[in-house]
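Q: Sequence in, structure out?
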Amino acid sequence: MQIIPAPNFFQILPYKHLLLDTSVLIDTSLHPAAWTPFLARCKEQRITLVTIRPVEVEFCNGAESSEKLNTKRELVKNIVDDFILPINSCIFEKYLPSLVAKYGQYGRGISLTDYILAGCLMQHARDMLLLTKNPSDFPSACFQLESHILLSQFRTLQCYGIYAYVEKPN
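A: Exactly. Output:
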């Protein structure tokens, strides 16, 4: 697997927090030879990698043994250097109700974890971006695609988006 960042990727992210969705953790566990150097380069470029506890839970859920669970937890710890973003009551009281209203019918099927990620982006809009390969969970009515990375492997091409929360008039 080869990770190909967009030309602007490293220009827009220094001194920002990059919030990682579960898909990043899954892909890193499946393809560490590609992801580990890429994430290390992000850190070298002064990009702080963060996630939230519900993402860690989604990633670790279903581990087949305590050893595999510990391996998954250690992977998360190594990726984010223990930067697990705290989730405060403001996310639930202010941002999630606003998101539910903004998402409207597009909110069907979106997990609570993705709503919490979106709420974190709202709360930290000036200095945080989200890395995910699930754009349907973060509709363009609320989030703007700022950059992307491509994952090229043999006969497949996948895309991760880097999203920002942008306040848009109704």
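Residues 66-80 form the longest helix (15 residues).
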